[in-house]
Amino acid sequence: MKKFVILFVLCFSVFAQSPNEWEILSSSGNSILYLSKTSLESFKGSDVYVWVLEKHIPPIVIESVDGRIHKTKTYYLFSKEYKRYSMLSIIYYDEKDNVLKSFDYNRKTDIPAYKYNYPLMRGSNEEIIYQRIIELTGELKKDTE
């Protein structure tokens, strides 16, 4: 029940944000990718947490989700230091913005290989997201002393 309440609050807060805070990152024949600029306001050092919305055109079907998926909202953790990322949460929506299914992948660890478990792949959506994060927040500055 506690996870459901947290998920509900997260979903509500993401949908309640102003439409101007969603920036289009890319648009292909099959999807439109948006970045929540508001979610970038509270990053710490190397870690950047960000919501990303993807609209699927046409809707997609995934075996573990009942129904046609029109939107996917993903909560990412990017590391500027390691240039890697993790997906912390994924929420699938139908055509009326009803939640079809959600998955929580959050893990409590400080081990970088587990905390940021995916590399950035050239040409991937995650690389596009990461590049925009760098443009908006700047490169990680390492002390050289």
Short description:
By secondary structure, the chain is of the alpha+beta class. 21% of the residues lie in helices and 38% in strands. β1 and β2 form a beta hairpin.
Q: Which quaternary structure do these chains form? A: single chain
How far apart the termini lie comes to 49 Å
Q: Low-confidence parts lasting 5 or more residues at pLDDT below 50?
A: 1-17
Please report the total strand number as a whole number. 7
Q: Give the CA-based shape.
A: globular
Tell me the β content: 35-45%
Main sheet makeup: 7 strands, antiparallel
Query: Radius of gyration over alpha carbons?
Result: 16 Å
State mean pLDDT (0 to 100 scale).
Answer: 84
Provide the structure class.
alpha+beta
Provide the helix percentage.
10-25%
Helix run count: 3
- Helices and strands, in order, run as HEEEEEEHEH
